Prior knowledge:
By secondary structure, the protein is α/β, with parallel strands linked by helices. The chain has helices at 11-24, 27-35, 90-100, 119-134, 152-163, 185-190, 198-208, 243-255, 280-296, and strands spanning 43-50, 56-63, 70-76, 103-107, 140-150, 171-174, 232-239, 260-269.
Amino acid sequence: xxxxxxxxxxxxxxxxxxxxxxxxxxxxxxxxxxxxxxxxxxxxxxxxxxxxxxxxxxxxxxxxxxxxxxxxxxxxxxxxxxxxxxxxxxxxxxxxxxxxxxxxxxxxxxxxxxxxxxxxxxxxxxxxxxxxxxxxxxxxxxxxxxxxxxxxxxxxxxxxxxxxxxxxxxxxxxxxxxxxxxxxxxxxxxxxxxxxxxxxxxxxxxxxxxxxxxxxxxxxxxxxxxxxxxxxxxxxxxxxxxxxxxxxxxxxxxxxxxxxxxxxxxxxxxxxxxxxxxxxxxxxxxxxxxxxxxxxxxxxx
Length: 301
């Protein structure tokens, strides 16, 4: 981080744990650590869906209630299009389901560099189509499917919604990647971290979509079809190279006539949403996301 900034309560402890866990190089241990203490849900089911190339992809369904026909959020994990997993997003998906009463279906997808753009997006599109076709048999409402995710997952969720107008009732997007402009002020201010660095973001783009230019399904801020999108909730991290493009994305959505809720959480870094074990801000922002889902289904009080 290139300047002194105030950290949110629990953020210093979170950064220390992230450093410790990174040194272990054990994704399972990392996932288990951050999932500890996550809220209970009515049920959890491991599923699969057919990916866009015919391959089998893992999915996990969290039921927030015992409702006979529940609305469902299709959730795409982060990891820079090159990593991440369902397990690493256990805390966020459990909290969203438990607090909203919705079901949350968290899905895997093919990763770069082995499978660059558009493989991950095509799998997200396939997951959305599969969920719509199979919702009723799963006790879910095919007319109430929202889509969301964090970081690269938010990018894929937004691109999926752009490519499938009318297929979703809402967007829940957490510190997403919406542009490829490394000259923004937040890149200058937070380009050296902690958390996601400018150099790492450039590296991730080079692995995911090196030749896509300003293709809107890679950098959605360049889309001319934002008016086709459903209501959106955007959550950003203040101490993040992507902070400015989150604000710009929210403004672009509003200008396009999309009902948009935007919040920047102070004193937190990229990746904070699954860190509720130490970070009250993560729990608060997940509650904000759950409130948004309840409003979509008319259940908010």
